[in-house]
Design brief:
Elements (H helix, E strand, L loop, with lengths): L2 H27 L3 E2 L10 H4 L2 H8 L3 E9 L9 E10 L4 E7 L4 E4 L4 E4 L1 H20 L6 E5 H10 L3 E5 L1 H4 L11 E6 L1 H8 L7 H21 L5 H9 L3 E2 L3 H8 L8 E7 L6 E5 L6 E5 L1 H13 L1 H4 L17
Parallel strand pairs: 1-10, 2-7, 4-11
Antiparallel strand pairs: 2-3, 3-4, 5-6, 7-10, 8-9, 12-13
Amino acid sequence: MKIKSIILYICIILAVIAAILFGAHQYLFSGLKQDETFAEVATHQSERLAVNDEEDFENANIVNIAIFGIDSTDSDEGRSDATMILSIDYEHNKIKLTSIARDTLVYIPDKDVTEKFTHAYAYGGAQLAVKTLNTNFNTNITDYIAVNFSEMAKIIDLVGGVEVDLTEAERQNLPNSENLSVGENITLNGEQAVAYSRIRKIDNDNARTSRQREIMACLFLKARDMSATQYPALIRECLSLCTTSLDYSELLSFSQILLQKDLSLEQFSLPGDSVDAWGGIMSSSGAWCYVYDLREASDALLTFIYESIYTNSNIELPPATVDKSAVN
């Protein structure tokens, strides 16, 4: 066979491969709603922590991403009714989920006000909400994923619903629940699962955030149990329902940890049982809020996320942005 013919065949094969890859990329990521206006958020650690101490976090192979559940029909606007920090921990082969109570009293930079954390997203979208997390909890988050609750219901339906441990009081707060049983591993559809994650009347915000993490944990387990042939359609549909600062290469990179056989999932919440918390009335608005020492909370949060990387470091946390003295 002549050299020219061989080269021609190689070129044809390469062109076919390129076309297949391009088609796969377009299929998977054409619906990605990437927030290209999201500027890289300053971690505020350069202002609040010593520069040398900051390197302890930067060198850790742990990625923190803010996840916002928005109480509107648009994931770009509204309050963050649910906030979690998703920690992809390559150091310890773990996925970690941390809930931050929506009514937590925090200092909101740029606006220069002390209000409930849920208001930060309404004031300045994801950028201000992430900046508020970093300022108050000494985290180094630079990316986010936001989804409104109607979109979240669709994502849950895509995986066939979620299984939760359901009480009678919870069942009574769900839509179309007449035929639902109570007990362990009760399957909820998307609409019911979203309602389940938003229940507030029967207990407290710690229980509410626990339900939200229960839903997220079940979604992770469902994704891990799916076959490889099911992933493309799931990825394509999910990406079209979220807004994120991440690009497709980052999303692909982070998703690889789900394939690890010994991957574990851990959960944490603030205030939870880790810090003393009080209910208080804000002087500015008269609204009830959760108040706890945010320096103490930062210490508990960083211990959970970084483990010995943090506890063995020389990091000295700055004073709390909010403590008990902030309310009447």
